[in-house]
């Protein structure tokens, strides 16, 4: 299978069977037989062939990204089992959003580095979405929905937002009974290139579209919004991974039901992603597996909220 996939990709990259055969140091007939075998295996024609060139069929176009993914994964697997050094070593570069990195990655790296003493970790905190194909990054933590791509994604946790406000604000302005009541409240807005279009969305409300809330405070920093909400500046719609400590401490009050099972939309989760074919796949996999265990299922911030609500009840 690996040889056939590699042959398929070489034909795509070179444009015809003759050049692919020269690149692979095979006879043209051997290349043709491997393509025939692969087409029979997948049950579809992948190429329209002529004497001078080959063109991908619609099925071939759909199969191409998956073939690249499979070849990269097989290469990584081979490298992993044939590595002569059993102890992972060297630099691993990780990027993450600033607030999430400070709260949930920084506390975890000490034990990771103790477990793998020959490794070094370079953590880049950046709220922009980093292009892993253009920069030397091994692992990226993504909080937004993942587009279709060649990235390998590992699910870490659900991504859930909680509408909340401080006791001071609620005493002054009253407590909204439903999400629609937020239209009469001072609601904070998150303004950023990575801002989610569904930031103020609630399941079953306004056809699941964002509510047209308004307010006197906007920021591109979620930590600032958290502190401002605690200070009574208005209603915030914060990620549970960010607001959980303040909710447990009573500095913020969840609106519309318990914080661990509110009415907010549960969107695509938090993922660790990597690009197949990078030079450090084993180290990246070790870090991702460690981080997944550290976060737990359900994630520890959700467990803290559930325990707090149980005690309060």
TrEMBL record:
Belongs to the LysR transcriptional regulatory family. Keywords: DNA-binding, Transcription, Transcription regulation. Residues 1-57 form the HTH lysR-type domain. The keyword Transcription applies. Pfam families: HTH_1, LysR_substrate. One of its GO terms (molecular function) is DNA-binding transcription factor activity. This is Transcriptional regulator. It comes from the Bacteria. The lineage of its organism: Bacteria, Pseudomonadati, Pseudomonadota, Betaproteobacteria, Burkholderiales. CDD domains: PBP2_CrgA_like. GO terms for biological process: DNA-templated transcription.
